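Input for the complex:
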Amino acid sequence: MEEPAAPETARHERADSAANHERILAAARDVFARRGLDAEIKEIADRAGVGVGTLYRHFDSRDGLLRALILQTHDDLLQRLRAAADTQDAADALRAVIHAATDVYRQFGALTEVALAGRLDHLRPDGHEELTAAFTGLLRRGVADGTFRADLDIPMMIAALESVFTSGKVVRLVAERGYAGAAAAISDFFLHACLAASADPGRARST
Amino acid sequence: MEEPAAPETARHERADSAANHERILAAARDVFARRGLDAEIKEIADRAGVGVGTLYRHFDSRDGLLRALILQTHDDLLQRLRAAADTQDAADALRAVIHAATDVYRQFGALTEVALAGRLDHLRPDGHEELTAAFTGLLRRGVADGTFRADLDIPMMIAALESVFTSGKVVRLVAERGYAGAAAAISDFFLHACLAASADPGRARST
Amino acid sequence: MEEPAAPETARHERADSAANHERILAAARDVFARRGLDAEIKEIADRAGVGVGTLYRHFDSRDGLLRALILQTHDDLLQRLRAAADTQDAADALRAVIHAATDVYRQFGALTEVALAGRLDHLRPDGHEELTAAFTGLLRRGVADGTFRADLDIPMMIAALESVFTSGKVVRLVAERGYAGAAAAISDFFLHACLAASADPGRARST
Amino acid sequence: MEEPAAPETARHERADSAANHERILAAARDVFARRGLDAEIKEIADRAGVGVGTLYRHFDSRDGLLRALILQTHDDLLQRLRAAADTQDAADALRAVIHAATDVYRQFGALTEVALAGRLDHLRPDGHEELTAAFTGLLRRGVADGTFRADLDIPMMIAALESVFTSGKVVRLVAERGYAGAAAAISDFFLHACLAASADPGRARST
DNA sequence: AATGAATGAGGCTTCATTCAT
DNA sequence: TATGAATGAAGCCTCATTCAT
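Predicted:
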């Protein structure tokens, strides 16, 4: 009703706004990833190339922005982990999951910590369960088909996996061995920890 | 026994002051552990039962207090890990190390993170190297005597170990399984990851 | 007249901000002048009609503000003294210098003290030398042309002049005799102290 | 009653206390003179070699101590100025007064400022009038006997004199010329400013 | 009476959020 | 709608004063 004769302008504005929205999210990911969750709003706005007022038009508060990012990180993570976990062979699936998580960590840095650490229950009830379920399914499948050892302590295995991606160690590993090297090292380590003793030891070798 | 002939009166005030010093340190450990490193000075002072001025008489600044605690945590950790690492059998030693670290984490919470995370280089140069060395020595010994597998990726193993104690997962594990249960689960997991294939699988079982 | 073709809208915010900047400076001059250099930031902000945060947007710290004011006072003083010292006749020039300094003191109060007292070497190296040079030039000129006595102790004369404007006595004199009366009394006094004996005694009389 | 058999001890304690009293006053003079009136209580107590508690037993508050010192400075100053002003010849008397004031300034530093600046009306009503009266009497006497010029602006002359001792310039002069040189320079300057034109110009020369 | 550790009000400064332009 | 200047609550720290020893 209000934009009868200028759909193009109106659409353009929306496009601008949407672009700003994305730029703010990207900037926030970047800044939170590098500076940690205490980063200042001003730095995010600057990096996004907008004023703080604009940032607040898109997100109602600092916590609102953080929440949006954490949920987004969580969603992204969950989707990629689920996809990776679908890989046929359980050992390959675990490797794929670890590669995916390494990549997410590279992108989301400190945000991964919260998304993965099981502290987001107040943001998304069952958020952590969803992630856990993805891992659990994969591990159970591997145990069932004899790929993983029968006495594997699945919650402990998941805790260890989450720890590596939550502790900041990945950045160090990536810095020392590069992205592929870090993912390979992590994969090998965890495969050793969970492969059945009878399994071909070669399976713990990375590609 | 320690001060057999100590005069009681002249030194009493100092004893009070020393007691306050300890109470402040304890309160700070507690509050930093629970609230994280952003905790407020006032809360620490309150919990110690002293005024902020008293806290500042004992520690020159917020950062000074934090630094003291982190160094103390680091020292405590280092000492206990070295002691545990001395255990004869390499597998037993690894278990002892993990039990010790679990205990330190329980006491120092969030402070363990910094002390263990390799971010204290500006506080104590080579601080992280000292910790790493303690782990490395133990693992090399185990590899040398055939307890651990020959192809063990020692840096990765250490990274994973540090991660578990740095990520906050330990509190969750302790909450779910109790102190002994958590330490046992962690031990079992890491032993599985590093024991030689020929080793008695039963060794990965906790006591 | 000053900005004939200035666009009005785009620059308006800046004009507001600049106005605040000036209001803060003016308020700070006022408050420091009356309350001394220990005045509280809050009082300055209040008097400027802004919040403390705004004050800190314009000046990075209490000392930054003070520094800016002292340098400004010094610059103002130096410029006006130099201009007055240019007056043809040396006796008239001294009178003009004293009138100018009286006016500066009226405006800057306690700030004049620091600007004139030779304590700003860390803010502006040679700051005091610049002021001294302005006085010295004038006095030497008067001695050279026979207006001032040949044995005039120039450093002592300058010290006495600076003292009067540095000691707070000027405010009292102004209060008692008004601005013109105070300047005249100071001028007469110092002319008596430096005029050559042969000089027409009437020259020490003010206008 | 309580000290029947040990008058010596009792007297000794009083002597100790009195000694402390003096040491605190001396330390306070020293510290206030050097650091200015914002000096910290702790520094004074340290320099006096007593605890802050002892300082507070002798002076009810920081302001109480400051008040005592200012009044003491004022009394000392007044007494010495009066004595000096009694000198027969008015010119000699002015010189004596200036020497005395230089000496007081050397001893009391920043305290002289307040004692001389006429800001102590709330501490001692008419305090400033007493000082002014001492100067005024001397100057009137000189004018009456023809030593000083008839048109001397006595309040202005006094203001200038007070200024020199109030502005901190004396320390600089003393630093550059030594104690005797500074006093001589100040004397010469002020004598030039007030001596009668017919007077022997040589009288403005210092000893 | 002397000591100095303890106290806490009050100052300076930061930064999330608001709002006039 | 975008901007960024303005705001002020809240945290850190200092130091005059009190008080237990």
